[in-house]
Fold this sequence. Notes:
Order of helices and strands: HHHHHHHHH
Distance between the termini: 7 Å
Oligomer: single chain
CATH superfamily: MFS general substrate transporter like domains
CATH architecture: Up-down Bundle
CATH topology: Growth Hormone, Chain: A
CATH class: Mainly Alpha
Amino acid sequence: MNANLAKATVVGALGGLLFGFDTAVISGTTHALTLLYGLTDWTLGVTVTMALAGTIIGAMSSGIPGQRWGGRETLRVLAVFYVLSALGCAFAWNWPSLLIARLIGGLGIGGSSVLGPVYIAELAPAKLRGRLVGLFQINVSLRVWGWAQRSGAGSSASPRFPQSSFLCCSSASLAARAGWSPKIASKKHAQYFR
């Protein structure tokens, strides 16, 4: 494994880290959100569920732009979704704006949960493919576990913003895809990762 492949794997797997974080962090904010926005049990449920709804939509629809523009370009857009969601949650002026920010975050989560592992698999040589794609799921699990070990107090957006910003900035330098992809065949490009 060379440095380019390692970098692409780490950046692709960061989506898993943020997926796990966002899945777990909402549980530590429910009391504060209830007090801040005067939520009932039903509206609190809607607030928590908005990211999950976005995740479903993002997972179901991310394949189309991933095929059309490539995994790298689509992951860049999804990284921007993470940043917008973090800022939107941090600066939500009312409950509907919080819902929109959580929905945008869910779109990023769902899309990156599909395209992150696919992007890693496209770049990885056959002998390393399973291990490198597994890093995505390990990141999801580690982040959920790591957040569960903490107290869970505070804003759901503030710790996520530095991570989502790093994902957004680091995705700018990723390669498009490996040459074995059925849509784009380039042996020269594939050698970049081997």
